[in-house]
Design goal:
The chain has 253 residues and is of the alpha+beta class. The chain has a domain at 79-118 and 149-234: Mitochondrial glycoprotein (Mitochondrial Matrix Protein, Chain A), CATH 3.10.280. It contains eight helices and eight strands. Strands 1, 2, 3, 4, 5, 6, 7 and 8 form an eight-stranded antiparallel beta sheet that branches. Strand 2 (98-105) and strand 3 form a beta hairpin. Helix 2 (11-21) crosses helix 8 (222-252) and helix 3 (52-72) packs antiparallel against helix 8 (222-252). The radius of gyration is 21 Å and the shape is elongated. Residues 30-49, 121-140 are annotated as: Disordered. This is Mitochondrial glycoprotein. It holds the Pfam family MAM33. InterPro entries: MAM33, MAM33_sf.
């Protein structure tokens, strides 16, 4: 059975599409943008004062941020939501900005490094975002342009046997996967990977489309990237909450 057909029928794939449909409620960078309404507005906290009062004020601000983050962060049972048919094994270490997906397919070993959401580059993406805003406004989908103001970096490394590898760097936006560059080499060679790296945008369009199909055939599908958006946004929230709690403990000493 083809991988793409199996993925479309997998129970987790339907859940991933549902997560994408509800992405307007996700909190990207919860400490920077709009968040769930908290118990009290930040402006109601008393102003800073010298000495011990300044420490107390800082703790009140940190507690406020913690209360907001707790409302935003959701505990998810990913194993239950995904089931056994998810094509990758997930390795997630708390306190890091990434996760690693792994799988084996015949004579290949596939590793995908997935990083926390990043804001879209204001220079490179500005013209593209403006075009999308105009298109979305004409089509009545005003939220799509805002959603595309962030992306999730992906690095797909495909090990061919024991000696050679192919590395594909991507940006996963909420509605598309953009391939940025590719590199390849052999572990036995002393050539630095940067010497054989190529920007995908410099290659013919047919070449670019073929690489998208190549990734899909190795389970890097839209359903997988939809899930990764939900997972990494949720991880970012929990990492921020953990950071706040460590900071609070430091201030209280």
């Amino acid at each position: 059975m083809a991988i793409s057909s199996a993925l479309r029928r997998a129970p987790w794939a339907a859940a991933a599409r549902g997560l994408l449909a509800s992405r307007s409620s996700w909190r990207v960078h919860p400490h920077q943008g709009h968040r769930t309404e908290c118990s009290a507005p930040l402006s109601s906290l008393s102003g800073p004062q010298p000495g011990a009062a300044a420490d107390a004020h800082l703790l009140r601000v940190i507690n406020y941020e913690i209360s907001c983050a707790q409302l935003d962060c959701k505990k998810r049972d990913w194993a239950k939501e995904l089931g056994e048919s998810f094509p990758f094994e997930i390795q997630d270490k708390e306190g890091t900005n990434r996760i690693t997906l792994t799988r084996r397919d015949q004579n290949e070993r596939i590793e995908v490094e997935v990083f926390l959401p990043s804001p879209a580059d204001s220079v490179e993406q500005n013209g593209e975002l403006e075009d999308r805003v105009e298109d979305d406004n004409r089509q009545g989908h005003a939220s799509n342009a805002a959603a595309n103001q962030y992306y999730i970096p992906l690095v797909v490394k495909i090990h061919k046997g024991a000696a050679s590898w192919l590395e594909i760097s991507c940006r996963s936006y909420p509605d598309e996967l953009a391939i940025e560059s590719l590199a390849f080499g052999s572990r036995e060679e002393s050539v630095d990977s940067s010497d054989i790296e190529a920007k995908i945008s410099n290659l013919p369009e047919e070449f670019q489309q073929a690489f998208h199909s190549y990734l899909k055939s190795r389970a890097i599908s839209s359903d997988v990237t939809n899930f990764l958006h939900a997972y990494m946004i949720n991880k970012e929230c929990h990492e921020y909450l953990a950071w706040l709690r460590i900071l609070k403990g430091l201030i209280k000493r």
